[in-house]
Amino acid sequence: MGYNTRLLISCPDKKGLIAAISQFIAMHDGNILSADQYVSESSGRFFMRLEIEGAGFGLERGEFASAFAPLARRHGMDWKASYTDAPKRMAVLVSRYDHCLIDLLWRWDAGELEAEIPLIVSNHPDLASRAQVYGIPFHHLPIGENKAQQEGEMLGLLDEHEVDFVVLARYMQILTPKFVSAYPDRIVNIHHSFLPAFVGADPYKRAHDRGVKTIGATAHYVTEDLDAGPIVHQDVAHVTHRDTVDDLVRLGREVERRVLARAVRWHLEDRVLVDGNRTVVFE
Amino acid sequence: MGYNTRLLISCPDKKGLIAAISQFIAMHDGNILSADQYVSESSGRFFMRLEIEGAGFGLERGEFASAFAPLARRHGMDWKASYTDAPKRMAVLVSRYDHCLIDLLWRWDAGELEAEIPLIVSNHPDLASRAQVYGIPFHHLPIGENKAQQEGEMLGLLDEHEVDFVVLARYMQILTPKFVSAYPDRIVNIHHSFLPAFVGADPYKRAHDRGVKTIGATAHYVTEDLDAGPIVHQDVAHVTHRDTVDDLVRLGREVERRVLARAVRWHLEDRVLVDGNRTVVFE
Amino acid sequence: MGYNTRLLISCPDKKGLIAAISQFIAMHDGNILSADQYVSESSGRFFMRLEIEGAGFGLERGEFASAFAPLARRHGMDWKASYTDAPKRMAVLVSRYDHCLIDLLWRWDAGELEAEIPLIVSNHPDLASRAQVYGIPFHHLPIGENKAQQEGEMLGLLDEHEVDFVVLARYMQILTPKFVSAYPDRIVNIHHSFLPAFVGADPYKRAHDRGVKTIGATAHYVTEDLDAGPIVHQDVAHVTHRDTVDDLVRLGREVERRVLARAVRWHLEDRVLVDGNRTVVFE
Amino acid sequence: MGYNTRLLISCPDKKGLIAAISQFIAMHDGNILSADQYVSESSGRFFMRLEIEGAGFGLERGEFASAFAPLARRHGMDWKASYTDAPKRMAVLVSRYDHCLIDLLWRWDAGELEAEIPLIVSNHPDLASRAQVYGIPFHHLPIGENKAQQEGEMLGLLDEHEVDFVVLARYMQILTPKFVSAYPDRIVNIHHSFLPAFVGADPYKRAHDRGVKTIGATAHYVTEDLDAGPIVHQDVAHVTHRDTVDDLVRLGREVERRVLARAVRWHLEDRVLVDGNRTVVFE
How far is D33 from chain C, CA to nearest CA, in Å? Predict the structure, then answer.
């Protein structure tokens, strides 16, 4: 087999889960390349991520589900398998800021991101040339008077391109619940503050007014509540009294792109599981 | 002269301030060891900190004020001079947590903090032995039924010991406006969150519930508004899904003591000026 | 059982190891609280750390070894089990600098370190009072003319107190191979530079001369080669042109104590395994 | 005047320098926007950076030198003035790695870097398309059999384009003394290690072999001694046992581009002065 199998599992915790799962894999001659496990105190759930080497493994992708289903049913598992030769199909949504987009595209080109990028969508035409550098189709969908219509077209495009995962790379629009529910735990947004500080608009301006000495950025899954979804990653930068709002914006760009890129990478490698409003990240 | 003179100035910005001030010092044969300057865009004010070498300077501490007053009046300066042989008199207020107190005392003993510590005050008796290690008088003032009375006694003690500066090293009581106004911009508190996130009680518990990936601590001057005073310093620590509330408390202790110690050091060395609700820190 | 069992394993990698180990634990009704695993590309070895809940586990500490031995033998495992009700016995060696010692003792007192500290040993009498605060016996063993003799006495003391683990908390002496070989991978030293930069004496002075903009500290296991043992943890602090050698020493103290404390905590919780000259740290 | 004047000064320290300089500026109706000053303990030299507002300043760029010369002569000053409407002319030298180049160009396009970029030069053709995105001329100068000849052509090009400042953005060639001496303290290189650790080739491989837990990058002025010039900026990233050499390379790219960009920005804004083998950075 030319690909590895990745298995993500969550279920109510009980004794013997690791034994049962690893026994199942051993029975099929699988070599476990990496195994991560965590039991959540707050939810009582068990989370696991496994990567199984392709060479020698007895279960092809077409066979895995039916072989694993009985075990999964017995333990009440939520699970999914993915395969390293089938990278996720990722759409990037942008408005006018280019720093996150350029950074993601550069990393993708450098081989840092396991993804196909079938399209970039924007409500503004500005960044078309950025997409062109890497030969990725750019769709300009202006919002106009009817936002629902624009979102409908966007959903149509994503569907048509069989998109698995949506990245909001400073997409300056609030998505409707309809859109959000189409990609549960599969839309990552970058918010330009250290959440839960400065939820909403103009976080750098408000950070400056408050006189903070550190600014931050937060990558989170998008839910219906604005800026309240499960946090995947956060980081900060130090600032001083000399930094104007423009300086915060400049320094913030560096944090935003770094935080978003890391969250995207983790999602693409199936390293993030959702535990209520928290995330489990198997780095 | 066996001491250096430190001069802190703030006034409306205008041309020629640096020339006027440095000319004044040169006229009196002063050697400027360090000079820091900043003009605040938001308030239009000029801020300066100067350290003048003792050797050769023609103005003794008794003479400085009358010599400098005309210049200060002409430019509408708020100013104060301090002298490096007269360290500030610092009181430390604590409750039951010892980490910030131990750290401050160790640093003080190691010569990192330019201060005299005439007393430590607590509403609990628990930390008396910590004070004793360094031979510092410890006053236990329980709050009992009448908080105003306890604060009155505390103010009396601070007054009696000629205290310049008050550090709340995890003092778990909210001070009354009367107390706060007795030491304007001269009370530093350590808040165990990254303000303005998690104002108020139980920040680590709330940070855990929100699923943040970074926790922080904030040192700020105390004003009448809870946790809303000018921020002097902030820092953070990364956390993961594996960290329980107790782990956040443990990791937070390390950040708290580091952030508080740095803010205290800067205040003691006259490096912090207040610009509205922001601080200018000449590191 | 009132204690959890921790199992550390390393062996040549092969298929089925996780299944075999977890099956063994499940067979004895063990509940795996946490499991970490790693395969080293450079050495081809498999490393694992397991924590098994006491409640319900069928193997008491007296029974574990004989039950596990056949499996271990079959796979060529190096392994050891430890038990959370039997913390390691840790000796701290110091000279005159107190910052690492005070920090370790404060953390120990705060419950951050799973250890008993039967003794502190020093070649100088200065820090006796630091030990006394926490009621820990302090042994002053001056070096005098015969270093071998002093080390002999020290080894005698450690042996008498059944010490498992030795921490060099700025102990300013080079240990002989004889001493080092008595505690293989069980002596942690803090070096006050970012190794491999500034091996040997006076790293802060040399860092200042070189004009670096960041200083660091390194915690490592002690081997016969000076400052060349496996690194457990490293961290840094930023410095500027304004920082004198004394400032570097001051800022470095903060990094040193933080880095050492973390390495000690990891060792005490059996989170560190040695892979040639590298360490595997299951945080 | 539509531009500000920046003045960089270094000279032997003595009393009254700040007064003399600020008096000179006040005499010509200059408004000092920012002033930074430092006295080096090791060299006994005084360093100063001033930014003087254009509006109202009585000295145009053509007049400044002759007006300032007498004062400069009296105090033995090395000095230079620059003007904010005349950004430096910066050449970027690259080989095959694109991350530093893309980052610099993006920042330049975003207005973060005060520079004109008349040309990019490379010994390989690979990155021509990166330059083209921003419309910057790309010169491919292969090294072939005669390196001196290639360097000669390069010097010719830089001269022809009136280049002030050269950035080695992962230019994988060692420059000859002749080239270096043509741009003293005006060539910045990014070295992919935390100098002085891992001087020379393959630092990531060597860092991995040594088992370090932190990797770094260093921006420094180029001198005749390899990797030994004055350090402008350094930063690090944490790594774990799981990170392969390829991971270090990937994580290192992020540090390299951040460190280089900051050093370049500081140089362009005349914030860096050289003090022997150290730098003074007025951030």
Answer: 22
Residue B154, min C-alpha distance to chain A (Å): 31
Contacting residues of A for B238, CB less than 8 Å apart: 235
A204 CB-near residues (< 8 Å, 6+ apart): A192, A193, A215, A245, A248, A249, A252
- Quick check: ipTM above 0.90? yes
CB-CB under 8 Å, C32 with A32: no
Which candidate from C213, C216, C279 shows the least CB-CB separation from D211? C279
Closest CA to A94 of A132, A63, A53, A124: A124
Give me chain B's average pLDDT, please: 96
| Secondary structure (3-state) at C149 | helix
With H, G, I as helix, E, B as strand and everything else as coil, classify residue C207: helix
Do D5-83 and D88-281 agree at the fold level? no
**Token output for A237:** 């930068």
Beta bridge partners of A116: A89
* CB A68, CB A97: distance < 8 Å: no
Residues 207-236 of D with CB under 8 A from B: none
Provide the pLDDT for residue C39. Answer: 97
Report which of D6, D19, D20 is spatially closest to residue D54, judged by C-alpha positions.
D6
Report the pLDDT value the prediction gives residue A249, as an integer from 0 to 100: 97
Q: Where are the domains of chain D?
A: 5-83, 88-281
If one looks up domain D5-83 in CATH, what number appears? 3.30.70.260
Residues of B acting as catalytic residues:
227
**Inter-residue contact A177 to A171 (CB < 8 Å):** no
Catalytic option among A164, A227, A243, A270: A227
Residues of D in contact with B37 (CB under 8 A): 32, 34-35
The closest of C26, C25, C15 to C75, measured between CA atoms, is: C15
**Displacement of CA D77 from its chain's centroid (Å):** 22
CATH level 2 (architecture), domain D88-281:
3-Layer(aba) Sandwich (3.40)
Which residue is catalytic, options D103, D227, D243, D270?
A: D227
Q: What is the mean pLDDT of residues D225-249?
A: 96
Q: What is the mean pLDDT of residues C94-112?
A: 97
Of A195, A236, A242, the CB nearest to B38: A242
Residue C176 contacts D, CB cutoff 8 Å: no
Q: Quick one: which of A254, A258, A252 has its CA closest to A204?
A: A252
Closest CA to B165 of B186, B185, B182, B179: B186
Task: Give the mean model confidence (pLDDT) for residues D81-90.
Answer: 97
- Per 3-state DSSP, chain D is made up of helix, strand and coil in percentages (nearest 5) of 35, 30, 40
Please report the residues numbered 16 through 75 in chain A whose beta carbons come closer than 8 angstroms to any beta carbon of chain C: 16-20, 22-23, 25-26, 29-39, 56
> Which strands form B138-140's sheet, in the order they lie side by side?
B138-140, B115-122, B88-94, B165-168, B187-191, B214-221, B231-238
Distance CA B250, CA B248 (A): 5
Contact: B254, C254; criterion CB under 8 Å:
no
Q: In sequence order, which residues have a C-beta less than 8 Å from that of residue D145 and are 6 or more positions away?
A: none
Among C7, C15, C27, the residue to mutate for chain A (most A Cβ within 10 A): C15
CB C219 within 8 A of CB C235: no
Q: Note the pLDDT of residue B145.
A: 87
| Sequence-distant (≥ 6) Cβ neighbours of residue C99 within 8 angstroms | B106, B110, C170, C253, C256, C257
Mean pLDDT of A183-198: 96
Per residue in B221-257, pLDDT (tens digit) is 999 988 999 999 999 999 999 999 999 999 999 999 9
- Helix (H) / strand (E) containing C39: strand C32-39
- Cα separation, A113 vs A266, in Å, equals 9
β B78-83/B5-12 pair status: antiparallel
